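Ticket #4471: structure output looks truncated?

Reporter: J.K.
Steps to reproduce: submitted the chain below (174 residues) through the standard prediction queue, then opened the result file.
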Amino acid sequence: MNKLSLSLLLAGAGLVLTLTAAAPASNHAAPPAELGLMQLREDFHLASSLGDYDLMLSLWADDAVFQAGGFTIAGAVNITDFLSSNPLWGSSVTLTSESKTSFDVVGNTATYAFECIIVRVDAGDPLSTSLSSIPPGVQNPDVEVVQHSNTMGVAVREDGRWKFLTFNGAGGAL
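Returned output as attached by the reporter:
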């Protein structure tokens, strides 16, 4: 290596070190409340996709109220029983769009809104279905978007975890 190449390499390394040293230290003391709410939303979709009753039950405040499709259901156990009776329970993948998610946090209470897209997967485990082998423009016969809904409500933080207190869903089959 000649002296010019070594000088450029060292100068570049010095610049990287200088920029790294000058970067402000980040504060990782506590994650933002929004991260906990995003986890609540993701756990809701995961529980529904996998048919995980215990996970779904853990997402609801004891006095939660669920409203959708003309139904009003009160209580964590009753809500989980209702959701787990859906024919799509454990045989679908539920997705959400980050661009259609919002949270407004005030202390231990937050309002939220997010979108749910439910995709039925008839080929066994919904999370292991491969979509990559399907040619562009061809509908996968094992996958069908069956429901779209918008959800909004109130979440509460109990013992450091966010839980649904009210859940109002609107939408239906496509």
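Triage note (M.O.): checked the attachment and the full token line is present. Residues 32-127+139-173 form a domain with the Nuclear Transport Factor 2; Chain: A, fold (CATH 3.10.450.50).
Status: closed, working as intended.
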